[in-house]
Amino acid sequence: MKRTHLLVLGVYLLSSCRAEEGLNFPTYDGKDRVVSLSEKNFKQILKKYDLLCLYYHEPVSSDKVAQKQFQLKEIVLELVAQVLEHKDIGFVMVDAKKEAKLAKKLDYKAFEEAAEHFQPYIKFFATFDKGVAKKLSLKMNEVDFYEPFMNEPIAIPNKPYTEQELVEFVKEHQRPTLRRLRPEDMFETWEDDLNGIHIVAFAERSDPDGYEFLEILKQVARDNTDNPDLSLVWIDPDDFPLLVPYWEKTFKIDLFKPQIGVVNVTDADSVWMEILDDDDLPTAEELEDWIEDVLSGKINTEDDDNEDEEDDDDDDDEDDDNSDEEDNEDSDDDE
Ligand SMILES: *[C@@H]1O[C@H](CO)[C@@H](O)[C@H](O)[C@H]1NC(C)=O
C-alpha cells in the first residue's frame, strides 16, 4: 500500500513538473538524500523533517534484475526527495526484514484496523506531531483511551499492540459512565440499556441551572468511573427540539428545568428524582445516593404502577382549572 502511494506520488510530481516548466525537467543532482532508516538514526531523522515518507521494502535479493529494479526505485525516490527538500519533507527506506522491530514500531496498521471496528461511533485520532503528542503526554506508538467527561485518559497497556488487543480494550471500556445522547447514534445508545433501564438526565447546557446540573453529573461520573454497572445518559434538550414535547408528555416532566430519572426501556415507564427548586439542585452526594437506590432496585419504575390512577383523581380536586388539560392529555395516550 505504502509503496504504491509513494510511486504514484513520484509519477505525479514528475509529470506536473513537465507540464509547468515545459522542457525544464528536473534532473537528479547526484546528492544522496534518501537514507535507510534504522533504530539508531530514527530519532535524529525524525527531528530533521516536518514530514517523513517511509518506503518499506523487502530485503533486496542478489538477483541482478531485482537489484536493478531496486536501484531504479531508489533514483525515483532521490529525485522526489530533491524536489521536495525545500519543503522539509524527507524520504527514507525501511528494510522490513532487517529492521523488523522498527517496522513494527512505525506500523499504525493495527490502530487503523481497530478503528474500522468502531466507525463512526468511536473516534480515533492519530498525531504525528511531536508538539501535540507532548501536550497530550502521549508516548511514541502509544494509544490513549479518552472516556467522555473524564479528566485523564487511560494509556492502553502492552504496546506495541495488535489489532485484536486494541479492539478488545475498546470493547471493554466502550460504555462510558456518562454519555451524551447524540442524534447520530441515539438508537445505538438507547439499545445499550442497563438490565432494561436507563438513567436519564436532562440538562440544557446553555441554561445556568442545566449547566450546573451537568457539572454535578460529571462529578458523579468521575467518582464512579470504575463502576461497570453505571452509565448515565445525558440529554441536552437543545439537541432534540422536536422530541421535547414528546418526552415531556411521555415522562410527565417539565424539561425547562434539570431532571434525572429512571426509564424502563420496555414500556417507557419512568420515575424522576424530586427536584423541588431549580436553585436547590441535588449535591453530588445526594445524586450518588439516589443512583445507588436505583441500581439496587430500591427506586424502580414498577412500585408505583397501581397507585398512579388513584393518586391523580384525588389530587385534582384543588385546581379544577387545570384538570381539563390533564384529562385531554391522558386520552391522547392510547397508542
Ligand atoms: C420494565 O417494564 C416491564 C413491563 O411493565 C416489566 O415487566 C419489567 O420488569 C420492567 N423492568 C424493570 C427493570 O423495571
Description:
By secondary structure, the chain is an alpha/beta fold. It has helices at residues 2-21, 42-48, 64-84, 100-106, 109-117, 130-135, 163-173, 186-191, 208-223, 244-251, 284-295, 307-315, 320-332, and strands at residues 35-36, 51-57, 89-95, 144-145, 154-155, 178-180, 197-202, 232-235, 259-264, 270-272. Strands 6-8-7-9-10 form a 5-stranded mixed sheet, covered by helices on one side. The longest helix is centred in the N-terminal third of the chain and has 21 residues, at 64-84. It is elongated and about 90 Å long. Residues 1-21 and 310-335 have low confidence and may be disordered. Bound molecules: 2-acetamido-2-deoxy-beta-D-glucopyranose. 2-acetamido-2-deoxy-beta-D-glucopyranose (NAG) binds at residues 195-197, 264, 266-267, 269, 300-302. Residues 302-335 have a biased composition (Acidic residues).
- Compute the separation of the termini in Å: 56 Å
| Shape, per Cα inertia axes | elongated
Strand content: 5-15%
Strand order of the largest sheet: 6-8-7-9-10
* Multimeric state: single chain
The SSE order reads HEHEHEHHHEEHEHEHEHEEHHH
Summarize the SSE layout with pairings.
Layout: H1 2-21, E1 35-36, H2 42-48, E2 51-57, H3 64-84, E3 89-95, H4 100-106, H5 109-117, H6 130-135, E4 144-145, E5 154-155, H7 163-173, E6 178-180, H8 186-191, E7 197-202, H9 208-223, E8 232-235, H10 244-251, E9 259-264, E10 270-272, H11 284-295, H12 307-315, H13 320-332
Parallel strand pairs: 1-3, 2-3, 6-8, 7-8
Antiparallel strand pairs: 4-5, 7-9, 9-10
2-acetamido-2-deoxy-beta-D-glucopyranose (NAG) binds next to loops.
